[in-house]
Structures are given as C-alpha cells and as structure tokens.
Amino acid sequence: MWKPSQRIKYAPTPGFWPNQAEARDSQLFQPITYQALTLRDRTWVPAMVPWRALETGEVTEDNVDWYGRFARGKPGGLVVEATGIRDVPSGPLLRIGHDRFIPGLTRLTDRVRQESQGDTKLFIQLIDFLAVRRRPEPAKFLSRFLAITESHRQALGLEEASEGDVRLALQKLSPMELSEILTTREIEALNYGQRERVTDTHLPHIADLPKQLPALFAQAARRARTAGFDGIELHFAHAYTVASFLSRTNDRDDSYGGCAEARVKLALEIIDAVRSSVGRDYVVGTRILTEECIPGGSTIDDSLYYAEQFAHQGLDYISLSRGGKFDDAKQPKVGWAVYPYTGPSGYECMPQYLSDEFGPFGRNLSPATVIRKHLHRSGSTVPIIVAGGIHNFDQAERAIDSGAGDIIGFARQALADPDWFEKVRQGRGNEVRLCVYSNYCEGLDQKHKQVTCNLWDRSALNEPCKKTEDGKRRLIAPDWP
Fold first, then answer.
1. DSSP label of 143
2. What is the largest CA-CA distance in the chain?
3. C-alpha dihedral over 50, 409, 243, 316, to 10 degrees?
4. pLDDT at site 481
5. Each residue of 415-434: pLDDT tens digit?
6. SS3 of 82, please?
C-alpha cells in the first residue's frame, strides 16, 4: 500500500472512557429517527468484505458467524458487505442477483437479530462492478490475449504477415519498444490487467448499463426486504460502477456523462427504481465519496451537488467515505488483480499508522462537515454517517458535536473489537481492544484471504473455535466477557 513520504508513526489513544451513566447521556448513545430509519443509538459498522461466501455467492455458516459476532456487540447499525446485484462469477463474495440467495441471506438476518436481541438494525450494501482481469504474464498476453490490429501490423512493417508472426515479433520487443506500438489501454492491460470502464461505450453491455442497472438494483432491493434486512445501502462509492458514473472522469458521450447533471442521472434513476420496488417505509441509503482524491477526479463541489440531489430524492441516510480508486492503484504482481486501495487515493480511504502531519485519524471529518452543513442550508436533515480512523469515545462524541456527522462509523475498530459498543455502554471502555491501524486486515483483503485482525486471530487457538483452512488463525474474535 502507498504511504505518505513523511512516514510519521501514530498510535491510537484511549482518550476518556465514560462511566455507564455518562455513556447513556452522551450524544453517541442517543436514538435517531429520520423517515424510515430508526436506530437505538448513533453507532454504525460500515460494510467490510470478509471473503467467507461460497464461490457461487451463497451465504456460508462462516458468513453467519461473522455478522453474528458483530451483532453481539449491539451497534446501532450494521452493514453487510458489498453484495453483487448481478448473478455473475465474483469469487467468494456474497450475491443477491437471484432468488436462490434469499434463504441464505434470511439465515444471516435471523442470526443478527438473535445475537443483538433485536437492538441492531441490519442493512445490506448493494454493488455493481465491471470486469477486472488479473495482470497477465507478458508472453501470454502477447501470444494469446492481445487483439492484433492493422496498426500493430503497420508499426511492425508486417502488413502481409500472419497473426502468429505478428505476435512473435511483438514478443521480441523491449518494454520501451512495445510502448511505442501498443495503445494506452493495451499497455494498461499488459501491465495491470484489462479493466472495463463505464466510458467503454463501444462495448454494447457497457453502453446499455443505464438501461439495465435500475431494474437490477430494484430487484436486489426487493430480495433484501424479503430476506429480512432492515434496509439497503446503495454502493455509489470507490472504484465501482455507479461511482464511476458519478466521477468527473466520466466523459461518456450519451446523456450519462460529462456535466454533473448528466453524471448523477443514472444514480437518481436507480434510487427511483428501488423506491418503486420497496416503498417509502423501507430504509434506502447510499455510500458516496466526499472526494475521489485522484487527479481530475470528483471534488467536494461534486459531492455537495450529489448529496443534495440524493437528499431531495428521499434517501434515509448518506454514508461518507473517500478515495479508493483504480486510477492511481499500485501495479499488481503477475497473476494478481489491481486493487483500488494501494495508491494515494486508497490511502485516503484506509490510512494506516504511518502517515503525514495530519495523521490517519479523522481524515474525512472536515469534508463531511462541509457536506452536512450544506445539506442543512438546503433544507435537508438527512442523517450523515461519517467514518475514518475513529476508535475512541472522545473522537466519536466530538465528530457529532462539531457537525461532521449524525452517526459514527467504526469499521476497522469494530473489527479489532466487535464489543466496543457494549463495553463503552457499560462503562467498561478501559477493556476495549484498540485498533493499531497496521492494515493487516487490508493486506488479507487484497489477497482475497479470509479477513481477520492480528489483535485476536492468534488468541485462544486452543479453545473450540472455527479456524482458517491452515488452522493458524481463528475466524472470529474471542467472546467477551
């Protein structure tokens, strides 16, 4: 993962832990209601992908145990990982693109209600993504995958040669020579793996995305309601399909690219379709970026406009993240897929303990404050969920008090200690296991390995517990108390 050049070391601080009465009276532990959304308090666990589903997208018992363990800590809201709305191969990630996924998802919602005694509201994040292929071996790419064109033949002076001879000639060239013959996208496919973009409108299935996605999201939302989720979160953030439509880099030449009004059009059509499918009494929220953090990408000005549009469209909450784009990602190893959290924008999404003068904690609070104040001025009080390196009670309380957010997201901190919420409620914050922001979990995610936390995955291995296939790590945090 990319790190700032300053490489200043930071450590999490416990801060002030309230006693039970102080926690009860704090802003963080007050209920919140807005339209269809009702939470017992303002704590939230954002979506994190644990890589525990079947390759075919079905829920496993490991998925059920994973979310059940978070639910035992009783956060106000808990969001299930990014779940694909299309029934296409995607590795061990959850899917919701067919009715056959409903029974497994129902088991998951039942378990969360049981473990939280009904105190935690459960949401599922719905996502669409385009094809991203692994970085190929150069010889294999040039001999098999590259589509040979007339421009390749002309550049090599092999207009009459067979395709096989052209491929052999390309394999003999140096990287510098290849860069003069291959197009920018071909060089990218060679060095990073081929990646589809929403701007590839020469491909029929990309051109047709605006016709297909609203119905797919609406059908997925209906399945989520049938499976017992309390609501859905539309994933309009990071490197994925709808976020790419929202990006300033979207220069599609139809009515879905170019100016901000065109770029937001598909997202609004998706929201309309989802509302028609599930009704106004069901929670529909979204996750968006405050800033893309890439050259030429969307800025806070774009986010202000999008947030206002989504609020006036009737969403029940807006969750804010930042960065996490393919555009500046680190070159993957041969055989690996490009990972959108390895560049500078990825660092902004998941900063670690080696940081710059600002540090890794609360990097998204300032833009979140700007967005929330803008919405209030425009007449909307839609709840804002803000996250990013928040690990202690003081940080969370200040974020609410300063107007950065109405609900506070704890992602890596909840992974480090799923019982953070109950410990603080009971006045036992001194027992919290603080995240150290080493991004051990992010490294496992990048390798598509079952995600755990190094603060607990080697603990109590002799006790009865489910372990990873090699038996070296436990799959969920030990029980408390």
1. I
2. 84
3. 120
4. 83
5. 999 999 999 999 999 999 99
6. strand
Residue (of 453, 455, 447) closest to 475 by Cα position = 453
Q: Identify whether residues 122 and 153 lie together within a single domain.
A: no
Instruction: Phi first, then psi: give them for residue 404, nearest 5 degrees.
Output: -75, -30
Residue 422 domain-assigned (yes or no)? yes
- Same domain? For 223 and 321 the reply is yes
Cα–Cα distances (Å) from 129 to 88, 113, 207, 339, 375, in that order, read 10, 30, 14, 13, 29
The span from the CA of 64 to the CA of 52, in Å, is 9
Is there a single domain that holds both residue 406 and residue 378?
Answer: yes
Question: 161: how many CB neighbours lie within 10 A of its CB?
Answer: 15
Residue found under tokens 């801060």: 15
Residue 232's beta-bridge partner residues? 124, 284
**Would 224 be classed as within a structural domain?**
yes
Q: What is the pLDDT of residue 368?
A: 98
How far separated are the first and last CA of the chain, in Å rounded? Answer: 35
Please, are residues 10 and 359 in contact by the beta-carbon 8 Å criterion?
yes
pTM above 0.85, yes or no: yes
Q: Does residue 468 lie within any of the structural domains?
A: no
**Which of 153, 170, 192 delimits the end of a domain?**
192
Whole-number Cα distances in Å, 285 to 58, 96, 124, 454: 24, 17, 10, 32
DSSP 11-70: -----PPP-HHHHHHSSTTS-EEETTEEESSSEEE-------S-TTS---HHHHHHHHHH
Q: Which residue in the block uniquely carries the two structure tokens 């926690």? A: 23
- Tell me the backbone φ, ψ of residue 232, rounded to 5 degrees: -125, 155
Parent domain of 18: 8-131+204-446
